[in-house]
Amino acid sequence: MVVIGEHRHTQVKIDLQAIKHNINEEMTRKDPLTELWAVVKANGYGHGIIQVAQAAKQAGATGFCVAILDEALALRAAGITEPILVLGITEPEYAPLIAEKDISVAVGSQEWLDQAKSILAANQVSAPLHVHLALDTGMGRIGFQTPAELSVAVKTLNTPASPFDFEGVFTHFATADQADDTYFEHQIDNWKQLIAVIDELPRYVHVSNSATSLWHQACNGNMIRFGVALYGLNPSGTELTSPYRLHPALSLTAQLSFVKKLARGKSISYGATYTAAQDEWIGTVPIGYADGYERRLQGFHVLVDGEVCEIVGRVCMDQMMVRLPHEVPVGSTVTLVGTDGDQTITLQDIADYCGTIHYEIACGLAPRLPRVYTE
């Protein structure tokens, strides 16, 4: 992929050692017979799908989860040979390609199985298609909802000469990251009722995302889909405390591209929403909402020389301005996510200011921000 932005001093830095640390911490807690599959969808939550997958593999991950087929194909093209599960629904028309590339897919309806079976037969595909049946226990997204419809699907998969390999069954919890476990327990009950109709469980029985494994470890099954915690981010935000220290892997830095003294009474940026109350030093930072740094971050702050500097005026598409405590040289480092001196800005801090979750901030960092990887 062509990176447009290599000649601008603004970059995302990824600490691969932090990713390995987070996996190692989870590996020491889980049952030895429970596998850990790294979730690297959405370009590794903005961290880089290939580099994260390679680091996760080195740390002991035995499989990978993605959201769409193209992500799985990208991993295969990069030489990843471990099992890969596509968690979203993939169109049945791609069943031959999925089987050819030895990829596993989530299936949530009998109709999908019927269509895929016909397409595989028409294309004379001999390789089995690995299937994980998705069960909707309360997420309301994809999956079988009743024991009756699930029974029909299981029978289809287990029919002699079936083109399918019934490899897994899974569900996803909606509130595993919350202190109130009422709805979580409701989903557990639904899960038990559904899988009761499966006489012989498949190889992989999995319900645990990061939150479930961190705070409901007894539910792990024999595979953990290790997602946001892989990147050192608490899936609960600030509501629950992780049982071990998560090391954030991502930092975001830039350099001041312009520094000026702004006279009292002069305004800054679109809409003139900020007016200097006194003579002020203003620095321009080469990053904006086109890079995924939200327009609504006016009034938030960055770090320059270890000092907190407020973002003044509206964040533009490609640039923004900050109020400096004094004159600072052009080229000085600006920390938008990370630590400078004894001050730290986290993705959670940014998310809190924007009224969202850190997942969205990380995934929203644009491709034109070069990713630089360190150990």
TrEMBL record:
The keyword Membrane does not apply. Coiled coil: none annotated. Residues 249-374 form the Alanine racemase C-terminal domain. The modification N6-(pyridoxal phosphate)lysine is found at K41. Pfam families: Ala_racemase_C, Ala_racemase_N. The active site is at K41 (proton acceptor), Y270 (proton acceptor). GO terms for molecular function: alanine racemase activity; pyridoxal phosphate binding. PROSITE patterns: ALANINE_RACEMASE. Pathway: Amino-acid biosynthesis; D-alanine biosynthesis; D-alanine from L-alanine: step 1/1. Substrate binds at R141, M317. It catalyses: L-alanine = D-alanine. Gene3D superfamilies: Alanine racemase (3.20.20.10), Lyase, Ornithine Decarboxylase, Chain A, domain 1 (2.40.37.10). GO terms for biological process: D-alanine biosynthetic process; peptidoglycan biosynthetic process. Keywords: Isomerase, Pyridoxal phosphate. GO terms for cellular component: cytosol. Belongs to the alanine racemase family. Catalyzes the interconversion of L-alanine and D-alanine. May also act on other amino acids. This is Alanine racemase. It comes from Lactiplantibacillus fabifermentans DSM 21115. The lineage of its organism: Bacteria, Bacillati, Bacillota, Bacilli, Lactobacillales.
